[in-house]
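Data card: per-record layout.
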Amino acid sequence: MAARDDEHRHSDPADGADPAWARQLLDHLRPTGRDVRRVVDWLADTTDATVSLRDDTGTALAGPLVPLDESLVADITGGRIASAAWEGEGTFARLIRVELPGPGAAGVLAVARTSPFDRRAAGIVTHTAAVLEVLLRAEQTAATGHRLARATADLRLAILQLLMVEDTVAARRVAAGLWPGLLDTDTACVYVVESSPEERDRLAAACLAATRDEALVVRCPAMAGHVIVVVPDDSTGHALRTLCDRNPGAFLGGSVRQSLARTATAYGQAVSALAVARFRPDQTAVYAERTHPERLMDPAVLRTWTTRLLRPLDTLPHHTRAELLATTRLGLEFTAVNAAKVLGVSRNTVRARMERVETLLRTDFSDLTVRAAVHLALNTQIGIAGDPTGPAAAPARLGELLTGPALRTWAQDLLARLDIDGRDLRGTLRAWIAVGGNAERAAHLLGVHAQTVREHVRSAEPVLERQLLAAGSDLYEVVLAHLAVGDLDQPDLHEHTQRAESGHPDAPVHR
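The structure for this 511-residue chain is written out next.
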């Protein structure tokens, strides 16, 4: 037996009023208690009934499905009636229309129990239906907001990945749609804010608020606790430092100003500065503009050496060459896994591209001296691309490039810092570099424990003011210093003083 029950949809709220259940129902509207399934479960317990919420297709949204008169369900979801009562085979049911998110969408709240509904139970069902409508609308709004936030975050990451591979034209084009003028600059600084992974979302939101949408704020895809901030106008840098003052668990590392094409270099500087910030009272640090070895080399000789070393890559199509250069630059700066996350590709893709560069250059990236030399060439190549008309010089090999008196003095002064320690930090570091940064192999070579090697290398970091255990610019500078003073053998490089051999698979075709 069924009956239309429209009058109960608009019953007096005071009917069967019970402050206890009313307070419980209102608690489900609090921010911490908004859950449609919990409300349905609460209604089942409170009315001693089986409760389900279903849409117009019969799909359960919450609770177990209750057998119903489908003609009544169709009348309710179709809008012909708002509610109905149904009775049969010892079961009493109430059906109430519930508006669902979306145009014209409706569902049915079905409450079935073995005893008739009194005024109290009927009132609870009616008011619960109203609460469910509120929660469903709130869920839709929240879901839409989350999707928009995720899409915006993905777009910011895409822009960063374009900058990382030096595609500034595409990065500006993508940014212009949502953030006009954001990348209308030739230079920028990069900051990395570090917190716990649990705090990162909150800190990213704080960075967005602090920079007032005048910076590119990205949740780092490689490091769970990092937020990357590309700041075209460094006036917002102060706001980020203030942010760290208000968050005791946050640290900030910043780069010096770089061209947009060198965003990857700036990112490496910010990560390096972050390591220093962890030991600073104010929890912030900016990359120190110390003397870098390439600045002590003859610029004309360095350009010529770089051009000749990387010449085998000139045989490739422009876009392929740019892709290999950008990937290898990041792969030498970070691990393959982290480089892949930053670029948005698989680690196998990163390794495959780097292996292709190894093949073209006919060298071995497992050798730290080779990595340091190629890293030097790749960073110099950026400057050459920006100024292709720079001075040229007679061909030279890396060993000749490192023999200048200024560079040798710098290298001697840098490594001499290690001699102050009573332990043989210098000897351990030299052996560790010689075996590709492998602590076990260095320990075997020196006749000590691998942990001793790690402790010596770790102890050398604050003395040299450079990160060594993490591959990157800091380590490669120390490797070049060892090469300059003759503490390490020169790397096995095919430094091309002529055109690539015609027998090489990527060599140009001579006509």
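Known properties of this structure: The longest strand covers residues 91-99. Confidence is low (pLDDT under 50) at residues 6-18, 497-511.

See the next section for split statistics.
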